[in-house]
């Protein structure tokens, strides 16, 4: 199996060494793990469900259970950090709530007001029945 290209930041390289995580393990988490969009990053995690699914396919990733790999949302494949935590309850998907959720979309221009005459002309232009 050929490893895809992924890059490690200086921080992630240091942390993976401290935590005994190999690049092969990171590759397998990125390949077989569940991706959760959370707090401005993509968390690839391997939990019990992923281990069970891969076992059904004949792939043993039980040694990866609880392994988390974080990548930024704009550069998936650049690893920010990697760590172990078997409790996945702390990894919550970003529901768009919170301090940085825009209440209004400012970049979107309002739609022009149309009249019945404008709509009928548009319908005729498209050749649709009125």
Could you explain how this protein is built, in words?
- The protein is of the alpha+beta class and 130 residues long.
- The protein has a domain at 1-88.
- 31% of the residues lie in helices and 18% in strands.
- It has helices at residues 10-19, 23-32, 48-56, 116-126, and strands at 7-8, 34-38, 41-45, 67-72, 78-79, 81-84.
- It has a four-stranded antiparallel beta sheet. The chain has a two-stranded parallel ribbon with strand order 1-5.
- Strand 2 (34-38) and strand 3 (41-45) form a beta hairpin.
- Mean pLDDT is 76; it is low at 101-112.
Structural class: alpha+beta
**What's the β-strand tally?**
6
Distinct helical segment count: 4
Tell me the helix content: 25-40%
Task: Tell me the strand percentage band.
Answer: 15-25%
- Radius of gyration over C-alpha positions, nearest whole angstrom: 23 Å
- The average pLDDT value, as a whole number, equals 76
* Quaternary form: single chain
- Compressed to H and E, one letter per element, the order equals EHHEEHEEEH
The parts where pLDDT drops under 50 for at least 5 residues are 101-112
Largest β sheet strand count, sense and barrel closure? 4 strands, antiparallel
């Amino acid at each position: 199996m050929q490893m895809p290209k992924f890059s490690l930041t200086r921080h992630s390289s240091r942390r993976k060494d401290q935590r005994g995580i190999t690049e092969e393990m990171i590759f397998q988490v990125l390949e077989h793990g569940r991706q959760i969009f959370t707090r401005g990053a993509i968390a690839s995690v391997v939990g019990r469900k992923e281990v069970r699914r891969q076992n059904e396919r004949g792939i043993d990733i039980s040694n990866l259970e609880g392994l988390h790999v974080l990548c930024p949302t704009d550069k998936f494949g650049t690893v920010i950090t990697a760590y172990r935590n078997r409790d996945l309850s702390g990894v919550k998907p970003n529901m768009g709530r919170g301090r940085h959720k825009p209440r209004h979309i400012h970049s979107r221009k309002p739609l022009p007001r149309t009249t019945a005459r404008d709509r009928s002309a548009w319908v005729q232009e498209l050749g649709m029945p009125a």
